[in-house]
Amino acid sequence: xxxxxxxxxxxxxxxxxxxxxxxxxxxxxxxxxxxxxxxQSGEWKPGESIPSExxxxxxxxxxxxxxxxxxxxxxxxxxxxxxxxxxxxxxxxAEQHVQYRFLKLVPDTGNLDSEGPAQRQIVxxxxxxxxxxxxxxxxxxxxxxxxxxxxxxxxxxEPTILEDLWLPGNxxxxxxxxxxxxxxxxxxxxxxxxxxxxxxxxxEKIRAVLxxxxxxxxxxxxxxxxxxxxxxxxxxxxDTPMELRRGLYCTEKHHYxxxxx
Amino acid sequence: xxxxxxxxxxxxxxxxxxxxxxxxxxxxxxxxxxxxxxxQSGEWKPGESIPSExxxxxxxxxxxxxxxxxxxxxxxxxxxxxxxxxxxxxxxxAEQHVQYRFLKLVPDTGNLDSEGPAQRQIVxxxxxxxxxxxxxxxxxxxxxxxxxxxxxxxxxxEPTILEDLWLPGNxxxxxxxxxxxxxxxxxxxxxxxxxxxxxxxxxEKIRAVLxxxxxxxxxxxxxxxxxxxxxxxxxxxxDTPMELRRGLYCTEKHHYxxxxx
DNA sequence: CAGTGGTCTAGACCACACT
DNA sequence: GTGTGGTCTAGACCACTGC
Lengths: 261, 261
Fold this sequence. Notes:
2 copies of one chain form a homodimer. The first copy, chain A, is of the alpha+beta class. Chain A is 25% helix and 31% strand. Chain A is built from 7 helices and 11 strands. In chain A, strand 9 and strand 10 form a beta hairpin. The first copy, chain A, starts with 26 loop residues before the first helix and ends with a strand.
């Protein structure tokens, strides 16, 4: 960590040209990479606090300000959470106020919690082999074992979301319908505590579609009811895809909210 | 700008309790507020450069680091753009690489520019009086003059987006169908140069709907085709709503893309 | 070359939480 | 009070742009 020779030992930025540009990487970016490694390796677990800024500065032999800037960026990406006077903590999905960070469906009237918590109903949960498109989304090979889950979320007693989701079989060994049904809380929180998989970011593709007969029955809607199709790929650290989710949202009394900035 | 008495002269943070908490506001937040004022007042116009960090530090009698942190936040919010070696510039919608910052519809295959630029077709443009819901969205009174525009966007020759938008009549005096048709570029860029209105952020509510007969004709789809309804309220500086837009997106070959993080 | 933003440091002090 | 993150400063040096 010698700042007189700031070479790129943690190569995160992809060079545009081949063999050109020594790919200068600032110190704080390298520190960021090191902290990221500790997060991935599980040295600091979700909900736990990481060492203080001074302590990390000592460990990495840099100034507090440099550690600070690294942590700033990780906190901006919601990987860490700073709490003044207490410390810096590994972000987790098991917190009340960020529980629905990835769920953008909100009631047309009132705020998010006006309807109380969603009722979750596991419809199906089985192991099978990845089809071509599922394998592609999860960076697996066709035929690799995957776990498929189907569930319905209801708000105020009305079925509103039908979700099919696929998980790579290996990291999620031992996940069963019972395990899912018994757990009360965000699914991603269960993934953290039981399987050490923390979802960090996701991409969603949204379309308008019509339901097939099975979907009509589960959501209690007619054939002509337009629904929101939300296809999500969620990623852990390292941009590793860990979940494919296809959701059907009923937007009679709810809407998908998105803030552009 | 005396940092030994950091009182809240630029009250941005809303206090939770009444008459409690002296609402401490850090220096860099106050600087941020001052820069924001200069942006609103038009002292620095979109595309222009603002004074250098050192110059601003001198003007506000603070250190460069403090100005830096203020600019950092404004740049994070896309109000300013930093360019190393050149200066800091007021963000604008008239730039190639951020032209579609607020348009999240992308083709299913290929990237954003694979289809070439969108063809814009102004269908209608007239002045009328605000209905109750439009007035509410634009923070006007019912009956206030508004401008209504209807247009169709086509990609690769196929009509894909039908948009109705409402603008407050006062700031947009002189905006005509001809003016809109003649302008080739993002609509928000025209708003900047011609009317001094810069859109800073927006909220979108997304639903799945079916088109009425008029909409079917304009988008060339059948009655049963599900479409994405995207209702947007766009804001200038100060969280002032300046546009209500209701879009219908055809998602046969495109999808609304959203990155969650 | 000068001017700009970008990085890094060292130290002082403030605000907050816990004990 | 002690320890944590948060703010502010002053100065040095690096990287990029354009004259």
